[in-house]
Protein backbone atom coordinates (compact mmCIF):
# COMPACT_ATOMS: atom_id res chain seq x y z
CA UNK A 1 0.00 0.00 0.00
CA UNK A 2 1.50 3.35 -1.06
CA UNK A 3 1.75 6.19 1.49
CA UNK A 4 -0.88 8.21 -0.44
CA UNK A 5 -3.37 5.33 -0.42
CA UNK A 6 -2.74 4.69 3.27
CA UNK A 7 -3.15 8.39 4.14
CA UNK A 8 -6.42 8.62 2.17
CA UNK A 9 -7.70 5.45 3.85
CA UNK A 10 -6.95 6.85 7.32
CA UNK A 11 -8.50 10.17 6.33
CA UNK A 12 -11.79 8.46 5.39
CA UNK A 13 -11.76 6.58 8.71
CA UNK A 14 -11.13 9.75 10.75
CA UNK A 15 -13.78 11.74 8.86
CA UNK A 16 -16.40 8.95 9.01
CA UNK A 17 -15.87 8.41 12.73
CA UNK A 18 -15.81 12.16 13.40
CA UNK A 19 -19.02 12.63 11.44
CA UNK A 20 -20.86 9.78 13.17
CA UNK A 21 -19.78 10.96 16.63
CA UNK A 22 -20.74 14.56 15.86
CA UNK A 23 -24.21 13.45 14.72
CA UNK A 24 -24.55 11.29 17.81
CA UNK A 25 -23.60 14.29 19.99
CA UNK A 26 -26.06 16.49 18.07
CA UNK A 27 -28.92 14.01 18.42
CA UNK A 28 -28.47 12.94 22.03
CA UNK A 29 -28.52 16.29 23.84
CA UNK A 30 -30.85 15.74 26.82
CA UNK A 31 -32.50 19.22 26.93
CA UNK A 32 -33.22 19.42 23.23
CA UNK A 33 -37.02 18.93 23.40
CA UNK A 34 -39.11 17.48 20.59
CA UNK A 35 -40.06 18.07 16.98
CA UNK A 36 -39.25 21.47 15.54
CA UNK A 37 -37.76 22.72 18.83
CA UNK A 38 -35.33 19.79 18.76
CA UNK A 39 -34.19 20.64 15.24
CA UNK A 40 -33.79 24.34 16.14
CA UNK A 41 -31.74 23.33 19.15
CA UNK A 42 -29.54 21.05 17.03
CA UNK A 43 -29.02 23.61 14.25
CA UNK A 44 -27.99 26.29 16.75
CA UNK A 45 -25.17 24.10 18.02
CA UNK A 46 -21.93 23.24 16.22
CA UNK A 47 -22.25 19.42 16.31
CA UNK A 48 -24.61 18.91 13.39
CA UNK A 49 -22.56 21.30 11.24
CA UNK A 50 -19.32 19.59 12.19
CA UNK A 51 -20.90 16.24 11.26
CA UNK A 52 -22.07 17.60 7.91
CA UNK A 53 -18.63 19.03 7.11
CA UNK A 54 -16.99 15.70 7.98
CA UNK A 55 -19.35 13.89 5.60
CA UNK A 56 -18.73 16.29 2.70
CA UNK A 57 -14.97 15.86 3.03
CA UNK A 58 -15.32 12.12 3.57
CA UNK A 59 -17.33 11.90 0.33
CA UNK A 60 -14.40 13.46 -1.57
CA UNK A 61 -11.73 11.49 0.29
CA UNK A 62 -13.57 8.22 -0.40
CA UNK A 63 -13.74 8.97 -4.15
CA UNK A 64 -10.04 9.87 -4.13
CA UNK A 65 -9.25 6.63 -2.27
CA UNK A 66 -11.32 4.48 -4.64
CA UNK A 67 -9.69 6.09 -7.67
CA UNK A 68 -6.37 4.57 -6.51
CA UNK A 69 -7.45 1.09 -5.31
CA UNK A 70 -9.72 -1.60 -6.81
CA UNK A 71 -13.35 -1.30 -5.62
CA UNK A 72 -13.38 -4.72 -3.90
CA UNK A 73 -10.21 -4.00 -1.93
CA UNK A 74 -11.39 -0.48 -1.07
CA UNK A 75 -14.73 -1.72 0.29
CA UNK A 76 -13.06 -4.44 2.37
CA UNK A 77 -10.56 -1.96 3.86
CA UNK A 78 -13.39 0.52 4.52
CA UNK A 79 -15.09 -2.02 6.80
CA UNK A 80 -12.69 -0.97 9.57
CA UNK A 81 -14.98 2.06 10.08
CA UNK A 82 -17.49 -0.20 11.84
CA UNK A 83 -14.84 -1.16 14.40
CA UNK A 84 -13.44 2.34 14.97
CA UNK A 85 -16.91 3.86 15.44
CA UNK A 86 -17.90 1.15 17.92
CA UNK A 87 -14.71 1.63 19.95
CA UNK A 88 -15.15 5.41 19.90
CA UNK A 89 -18.76 4.97 21.08
CA UNK A 90 -17.46 2.90 23.95
CA UNK A 91 -14.88 5.55 24.97
CA UNK A 92 -16.99 8.70 24.45
CA UNK A 93 -20.57 7.56 25.08
CA UNK A 94 -19.85 4.61 27.39
CA UNK A 95 -21.69 2.20 25.11
CA UNK A 96 -21.55 -1.40 26.24
CA UNK A 97 -19.17 -3.90 24.68
CA UNK A 98 -20.85 -7.28 25.10
CA UNK A 99 -18.92 -10.53 24.35
CA UNK A 100 -20.84 -10.81 21.06
CA UNK A 101 -19.77 -7.29 20.07
CA UNK A 102 -16.13 -7.97 20.98
CA UNK A 103 -16.25 -11.12 18.83
CA UNK A 104 -17.70 -9.14 15.92
CA UNK A 105 -15.06 -6.43 16.29
CA UNK A 106 -12.24 -9.00 16.35
CA UNK A 107 -13.60 -10.81 13.26
CA UNK A 108 -13.97 -7.61 11.21
CA UNK A 109 -10.50 -6.43 12.29
CA UNK A 110 -8.95 -9.78 11.35
CA UNK A 111 -10.66 -9.67 7.96
CA UNK A 112 -9.44 -6.13 7.22
CA UNK A 113 -5.92 -6.97 8.41
CA UNK A 114 -5.82 -10.00 6.11
CA UNK A 115 -6.84 -7.88 3.11
CA UNK A 116 -4.52 -5.02 4.06
CA UNK A 117 -1.40 -7.15 4.51
CA UNK A 118 -1.92 -9.32 1.42
CA UNK B 1 -44.59 -8.45 6.66
CA UNK B 2 -41.69 -10.75 5.79
CA UNK B 3 -41.94 -9.58 2.20
CA UNK B 4 -41.79 -5.93 3.35
CA UNK B 5 -38.49 -6.60 5.15
CA UNK B 6 -37.06 -8.52 2.21
CA UNK B 7 -37.89 -5.77 -0.27
CA UNK B 8 -36.64 -3.11 2.17
CA UNK B 9 -33.32 -4.81 2.85
CA UNK B 10 -32.91 -5.54 -0.85
CA UNK B 11 -33.55 -1.90 -1.75
CA UNK B 12 -31.07 -0.71 0.89
CA UNK B 13 -28.40 -3.07 -0.39
CA UNK B 14 -29.18 -2.05 -3.98
CA UNK B 15 -28.88 1.68 -3.30
CA UNK B 16 -25.64 1.25 -1.32
CA UNK B 17 -24.12 -0.95 -4.03
CA UNK B 18 -25.16 1.50 -6.76
CA UNK B 19 -23.51 4.34 -4.81
CA UNK B 20 -20.23 2.44 -4.43
CA UNK B 21 -20.05 1.49 -8.10
CA UNK B 22 -20.73 5.12 -9.05
CA UNK B 23 -18.02 6.25 -6.59
CA UNK B 24 -15.51 4.01 -8.32
CA UNK B 25 -16.50 5.24 -11.80
CA UNK B 26 -16.45 8.86 -10.56
CA UNK B 27 -12.93 8.43 -9.21
CA UNK B 28 -11.68 6.67 -12.34
CA UNK B 29 -13.03 9.39 -14.63
CA UNK B 30 -11.52 12.18 -12.52
CA UNK B 31 -7.98 10.74 -12.62
CA UNK B 32 -5.21 11.86 -12.23
CA UNK B 33 -5.80 12.52 -8.55
CA UNK B 34 -4.95 16.09 -7.57
CA UNK B 35 -5.66 18.09 -4.42
CA UNK B 36 -7.04 21.08 -6.29
CA UNK B 37 -10.04 22.68 -7.95
CA UNK B 38 -9.27 21.14 -11.34
CA UNK B 39 -9.83 17.67 -9.90
CA UNK B 40 -13.10 18.77 -8.29
CA UNK B 41 -14.33 20.30 -11.56
CA UNK B 42 -13.42 17.12 -13.44
CA UNK B 43 -15.24 15.07 -10.81
CA UNK B 44 -18.45 17.09 -10.93
CA UNK B 45 -18.51 17.41 -14.72
CA UNK B 46 -19.08 13.64 -15.05
CA UNK B 47 -22.47 12.04 -14.30
CA UNK B 48 -21.11 9.37 -11.96
CA UNK B 49 -20.79 11.51 -8.86
CA UNK B 50 -24.51 12.37 -9.13
CA UNK B 51 -25.35 8.67 -9.35
CA UNK B 52 -23.44 8.18 -6.11
CA UNK B 53 -25.37 11.01 -4.46
CA UNK B 54 -28.69 9.57 -5.73
CA UNK B 55 -27.72 6.15 -4.34
CA UNK B 56 -26.96 7.71 -0.95
CA UNK B 57 -30.26 9.59 -0.85
CA UNK B 58 -32.17 6.43 -1.80
CA UNK B 59 -30.31 4.45 0.87
CA UNK B 60 -31.00 7.15 3.47
CA UNK B 61 -34.77 7.13 2.95
CA UNK B 62 -34.93 3.33 2.72
CA UNK B 63 -32.94 3.10 5.97
CA UNK B 64 -35.21 5.58 7.74
CA UNK B 65 -38.43 3.80 6.71
CA UNK B 66 -36.91 0.39 7.52
CA UNK B 67 -35.94 1.51 11.02
CA UNK B 68 -39.55 2.40 11.77
CA UNK B 69 -40.51 -1.26 11.51
CA UNK B 70 -37.51 -3.55 11.16
CA UNK B 71 -35.31 -4.66 14.06
CA UNK B 72 -32.01 -2.77 14.20
CA UNK B 73 -29.79 -5.89 14.04
CA UNK B 74 -30.71 -7.20 10.58
CA UNK B 75 -30.99 -3.61 9.34
CA UNK B 76 -27.43 -2.90 10.56
CA UNK B 77 -26.15 -6.01 8.79
CA UNK B 78 -27.98 -5.19 5.55
CA UNK B 79 -26.55 -1.67 5.61
CA UNK B 80 -23.00 -3.07 5.52
CA UNK B 81 -23.35 -5.95 3.10
CA UNK B 82 -22.52 -3.75 0.10
CA UNK B 83 -18.98 -4.88 0.87
CA UNK B 84 -19.90 -8.31 -0.51
CA UNK B 85 -22.12 -7.15 -3.39
CA UNK B 86 -19.51 -4.57 -4.42
CA UNK B 87 -16.71 -7.12 -4.22
CA UNK B 88 -18.63 -9.59 -6.41
CA UNK B 89 -19.82 -6.99 -8.93
CA UNK B 90 -16.31 -5.53 -9.25
CA UNK B 91 -15.33 -8.66 -11.21
CA UNK B 92 -17.73 -8.27 -14.17
CA UNK B 93 -17.91 -4.44 -14.07
CA UNK B 94 -14.28 -3.47 -13.47
CA UNK B 95 -12.52 -6.72 -14.36
CA UNK B 96 -11.13 -7.01 -10.86
CA UNK B 97 -9.74 -10.25 -9.47
CA UNK B 98 -10.77 -11.55 -6.04
CA UNK B 99 -7.67 -12.99 -4.37
CA UNK B 100 -7.76 -15.79 -1.82
CA UNK B 101 -6.87 -13.31 0.96
CA UNK B 102 -9.72 -11.03 -0.12
CA UNK B 103 -12.21 -13.91 -0.19
CA UNK B 104 -11.12 -15.05 3.28
CA UNK B 105 -11.12 -11.45 4.54
CA UNK B 106 -14.67 -10.95 3.22
CA UNK B 107 -15.86 -14.10 5.03
CA UNK B 108 -14.33 -12.88 8.32
CA UNK B 109 -15.83 -9.39 7.89
CA UNK B 110 -19.31 -10.77 7.14
CA UNK B 111 -19.06 -13.12 10.14
CA UNK B 112 -18.13 -10.08 12.26
CA UNK B 113 -21.05 -8.04 10.91
CA UNK B 114 -23.44 -10.93 11.70
CA UNK B 115 -22.10 -11.01 15.29
CA UNK B 116 -22.56 -7.25 15.65
CA UNK B 117 -26.08 -7.46 14.17
CA UNK B 118 -27.00 -10.25 16.60
CA UNK B 119 -25.65 -8.26 19.54
CA UNK B 120 -28.06 -5.45 18.55
CA UNK B 121 -30.97 -7.88 18.15
CA UNK B 122 -30.43 -9.28 21.63
CA UNK B 123 -31.65 -5.91 22.97
CA UNK B 124 -29.28 -5.97 25.94
CA UNK B 125 -30.78 -2.89 27.60
CA UNK B 126 -29.69 -0.48 24.86
CA UNK B 127 -29.11 3.14 25.99
CA UNK B 128 -31.53 4.40 23.34
CA UNK B 129 -33.73 2.32 21.05
CA UNK B 130 -32.48 4.15 17.96
Write the topology of this structure.
The complex is a heterodimer of chains A (118) and B (130).
Chain A (H helix, E strand, L loop, with lengths): L2 H25 L7 H9 L2 H21 L4 H8 L1 H14 L5 H19 L1
Chain B lengths: L1 H28 L7 H8 L3 H22 L2 H7 L3 H13 L5 H22 L9
Helix pairs in contact in B: 1-3, 1-5, 4-6
Task: Give a structural overview.
The complex is a heterodimer of chains A (118) and B (130). With 118 residues, chain A is mainly α. Chain A has one domain (3-117). Chain A contains 6 helices and no strands. In chain A, helix 1 crosses helix 5 (80-93) and helix 4 (71-78) runs antiparallel to helix 6 (99-117). The longest helix of chain A has 25 residues, at 3-27. Chain A starts with a helix and ends with a helix. The model of chain A has no long low-confidence stretch (mean pLDDT 90). Chain B has 6 helices and no strands. Chain B has one domain. By secondary structure, chain B is an all-alpha fold. The A-B interface holds A 4, 28, 60, 62-68, 70-76, 78-79, 82, 86, 93, 95-96, 98, 100-101, 103-112, 114-115, 117-118 and B 20-21, 23-24, 26-28, 30-31, 33, 40, 43, 49, 52, 80, 82-83, 86-87, 90-91, 94, 96, 98-99, 101-102, 104-109, 111-116, 118-119, 122, 124, 127-128.
Major sheet summary line of chain A: none
What's the number of extended β-strand segments of chain B?
0
Q: What order do the helices and strands of chain B follow?
A: HHHHHH
Count structural domains of chain A. 1
Number of helices, counting only DSSP H or I runs of 4 residues or more of chain A = 6
**Oligomer designation:** heterodimer
Average pLDDT, all residues of chain A: 90
Radius of gyration of chain B from CA coordinates: 17 Å
Pattern of helices and strands of chain A: HHHHHH
Interface with most residues:
A-B, 41 and 45 residues
Percent range for helical residues of chain A? over 70%
- Please indicate the percent range of residues of chain B in DSSP E strands (runs of 2 or more): under 5%
Low-confidence stretches of chain A: none
- Cα shape of chain B: globular
Query: Treating each run of at least 4 consecutive H or I residues as one helix, how many helices of chain B?
Result: 6
Distance between the termini of chain A: 10 Å
Strand content of chain A: under 5%
Amino acid sequence: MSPTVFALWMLTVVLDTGGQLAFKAAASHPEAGDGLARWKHMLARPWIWLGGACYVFEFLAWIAFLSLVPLGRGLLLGSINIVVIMLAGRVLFRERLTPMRVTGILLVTAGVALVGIA
Amino acid sequence: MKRFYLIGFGALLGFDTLAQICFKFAGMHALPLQANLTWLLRLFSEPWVYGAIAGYIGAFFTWMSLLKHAPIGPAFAASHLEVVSGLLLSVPIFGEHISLAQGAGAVLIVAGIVCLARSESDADTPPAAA
